[in-house]
Amino acid sequence: MKFKKIAALAATAVLTVGIFAGCGGASQQTSSSNSSSKKKVIGFAQVGAESGWRTAETSSIKEIPKLDPNFELKFSDGQQKQENQIKAIRSFIAEKVDIIALDPVVETGWDTVLKEAKNAKIPVVIVDRNVKVADNSLVTAFLGSDMEEEGKRAAKVVIDKFGKDAKLNIAELQGTVGSTAMIGRQKGFNETIKDCPNYKIIKSQTGDFTRAKGKEVMEAFLKSDGDKINVLWSHNDDMAVGAIQAIEEYGKKPGKDIFIVSVDGIKDMFKLMADGKSNGIVECNPLLGPQLVETSKQVLSGKLKDKIVHTKEGVFTQDQAKKELPNRKY
Ligand code: AHR
Question: Residues of CATH 3.40.50.2300 domain(s) within the chain?
């Protein structure tokens, strides 16, 4: 097996622009507790709590006031619903926070509310997943992973194992439909396997990034095509963990009868990899709190260095999983 750990991509600056004129800044009025303490307030609109990755991201974001006591955090859990996230953003605007940080459940549908934030002169930092808006000035900065690259890396894991000419039937567990994590990973994977004439995606359905749905969908895949599936490509670890249970209950050996690759790098998946039940992890780094502090400081001082910052990530094989397991923080 010819796996390569991809060298960490140290905070890749893709594009540098200034923040939009007049946004945020030291003079911004914030919530009453904030104005008395003079702390800067970040309002964070989180997607939900659907996966181990998400829990790790939430913990990292909640560390912000400890990382830098000059910041206060207002946190909102959107419970996987865009309407809840929009409501949270409107509350942050009403409370006059200094920065709005949004981890958007899906890419589209943000133009109106982000225009409201811009009109209120509150800078918006997009975290993890991205948004698609007609006017790019609605977004001050983005920090997170390159999801398309993650999909490409997952496909390379499969190609490294089987070669481009192999005949493979692939089952795909998609993430939340319309999210950058789903769109980017699917695009990157599909583009990469275009060079492999006999790779076929015979099953593809969303498991909404959760363990329970991953198991449920995999059970259905196995019921209809259990004997045909050679590879499981899962857009995240949690769905793959659920699918591994389904594969075992079906009487097959995950990691042996079905080759498995997934994205994230949570501890549970590292354990399964170390036990030989999965084959490849494409890492997606959820520890975004420190980077959000750094970006927020730059935005508030009017000295934003990079409008887009991509996080560090690697690829892990079974051999590497055992070694790496004791170091995993989430
Ligand atoms: O947006 C990041 C993705 O969302 C992670 O891969 C997944 O686990 C989470 O739910």
Answer: 40-144+286-311, 147-284
pLDDT tens series, the chain, 330 aa = 444 444 333 333 332 222 322 333 323 323 334 444 689 999 999 999 999 999 999 999 999 999 999 999 999 999 999 999 999 999 999 999 999 999 999 999 999 999 999 999 999 999 999 999 999 999 999 999 999 999 999 999 999 999 999 999 999 999 999 999 999 999 999 999 999 999 999 999 999 999 999 999 999 999 999 999 999 999 999 999 999 999 999 999 999 999 999 999 999 999 999 999 999 999 999 999 999 999 999 999 999 999 999 998 999 999 999 999 999 989
In ligand 1, the atom with minimum distance to the C-alpha of 263 is 6
- The CATH number that domain 40-144+286-311 falls under is 3.40.50.2300
- Paired with 171 in beta bridges are 203, 232
Q: How far is the CA of 185 from the centre of ligand 1 (A)?
A: 11
User: Residue 237 in contact with residue 185, Cβ under 8 Å?
Assistant: no
Question: What does the block give as tokens for 140?
Answer: 């001050």
Cα 105–Cα 110–Cα 116 angle in degrees, nearest 5: 130
Say which residues have a Cβ less than 8 Å from residue 305's Cβ, sequence separation at least 6: 13, 16, 298
Name which CATH class applies to 147-284.
Answer: alpha beta
Q: Residue 127 gets which letter from DSSP? A: E
Ligand 1: residue of 173, 284, 287, 330 to mutate (most ligand atoms within 8 A of CB) is 284
